[in-house]
Design a protein that fits this description.
Elements: H1 5-25, H2 30-54, H3 64-85, H4 91-113, H5 118-143, H6 152-210
Helix pairs in contact: 1-2, 1-6, 3-4, 3-5, 4-5, 4-6, 5-6
């Protein structure tokens, strides 16, 4: 849900405005007004997010072409890994390689939604996906060589065990992207709650000032 601060602020103001209208003007009650305000904020934020996706240039000067080029490079590597795995007879190993491809490709989909994660994905491709691509291709080449070299069995076994470690590392890199979105969403919610709370406190104070005081004494 990353976007420009102007877009975020507009989304928050729309939510707060809906909350204020329902709570103070229409007297719909605090919690119903808060629910509607949050929903209005979410809708406005999603609309703004969709608009951001269509922009050619992001806030950090990242071009759409750069994002697409990075995704193409990553997909070329996963396609090569997947194509090589078709030569294997070990179904379990093929599944592990396929899982690695799917994790990487899910990161590319996240990048499409949030171009500001480009740096994370580029680092992932350079330091993790490219070496994994080489490992998979060398593994397949060795596993399908006939006659198999004498020391091939131990090397293949070691490589197969490493796939689980590689999978865990891929998931850690994906978690970085998801953590950024969670932090952004949490920040926006806190801002919304703060503004709503301040408006509600101000509204109650205004009502207290307008309430006529009852005479303290009895009937004269």
């Amino acid at each position: 849900m990353k976007g420009s601060w102007a877009g975020r602020l507009l989304s928050i103001l729309i939510g707060v405005a809906c909350f204020a209208v329902l709570n103070f003007w229409l007297a719909a009650g605090f919690f119903p007004a808060l629910i509607v305000g949050v929903l209005a904020w979410l809708v406005a934020a999603l609309i703004n997010s969709g608009k951001q996706k269509e922009d050619k240039i992001s806030l950090d000067g990242i071009t759409r072409q750069e994002v697409e080029s990075t995704i193409r490079a990553g997909r070329k590597l996963t396609a090569g890994m997947r194509q090589a795995s078709y030569r294997l007879q070990q179904m379990e190993v093929k599944k592990e390689i396929e899982d690695l491809c799917k994790i990487a490709e899910s990161m590319f989909e996240l990048l499409k939604k949030d171009p500001n994660d480009l740096r994370i994905v580029k680092q992932f491709i350079t330091y993790y996906l490219e070496p994994t691509h080489k490992i998979v291709l060398k593994y397949v080449e060795l596993a399908t060589t006939r006659p198999m070299p004498a020391d091939a069995v131990s090397i293949l076994d070691k490589t197969e065990k490493s796939f689980k470690t590689i999978r865990a590392t891929f998931l850690q890199q994906k978690e970085k992207m998801l953590a950024n979105d969670v932090m952004d969403l949490d920040t926006e919610i806190k801002v919304f709650e703060t503004i709503s709370s301040n408006m509600n406190t101000g509204g109650n104070a205004g009502k207290d000032r307008n309430t006529p005081s009852m005479p303290s004494g009895g009937r004269q």
